[in-house]
Specification:
Shape: globular
Mean pLDDT: 86
Largest sheet: 6 strands, mixed
Number of strands: 11
Strand content: 35-45%
Number of domains: 1
Distance between the termini: 26 Å
Strand order of the largest sheet: 7-4-9-2-1-11
CATH architecture: Sandwich
Radius of gyration: 17 Å
Helix content: under 10%
CATH topology: Jelly Rolls
Low-confidence stretches: none
Number of helices: 1
CATH superfamily: Jelly Rolls
Order of helices and strands: HEEEEEEEEEEE
């Protein structure tokens, strides 16, 4: 059925692309952190990053994506260049990092950290490209374990 107020919208195709999920943090993971992908399409992506103590990364930026981060569990501290603190966040708090903004973050609480990540891709800039702005202080082989959320 076509919407008579906007005939360019294909409701059936949009409704066929609806995604549902259920998040459960991995009980264990062998790398520095675990990333559980929740949803993904050509305009955006959502995931939860699960980090234990010392689960920090290096100064970097993303060229073609804005990223919203929200703490689900634990505490996170976000930094900019020269280790300037951008903010410290607890559950239901977060930060928007626009494409091109340099940042890094760390777990800074006593609990493991769970961060909701919402990526919004910029049209015409290609896919998400993570670019290091400082040397990594960890071995890439010890990067992230990747999981898929359960589909509901």
């Amino acid at each position: 059925m076509t919407d008579v107020s906007n005939p360019a919208i294909d409701h059936e195709a949009a409704e066929a692309a609806i995604q549902t999920f259920s998040f459960k943090a991995p009980e264990s993971y062998t790398r520095r952190k675990a990333i559980v992908r929740l949803t993904s399409n050509e305009r955006g992506q959502t995931a939860v990053h699960c980090l234990g103590q010392g689960g920090e990364n290096n100064l970097h930026y993303h060229a073609g994506v804005d990223i919203t981060w929200m703490v689900i569990k634990g505490r996170a501290r976000f930094y900019g260049p020269e280790d300037v603190v951008r903010g410290e966040f607890g559950p239901q708090e977060g930060i928007l990092i626009p494409a091109g903004a340099r940042y890094w973050f760390e777990s800074c609480g006593t609990d493991d950290l769970e961060l909701l990540q919402i990526k919004t891709f910029h049209k015409g800039r290609g896919t998400d490209k993570r670019i290091d702005a400082a040397a990594r202080n960890f071995d890439m082989a010890e990067g992230a374990s990747h999981f898929e959320a359960a589909k509901v």
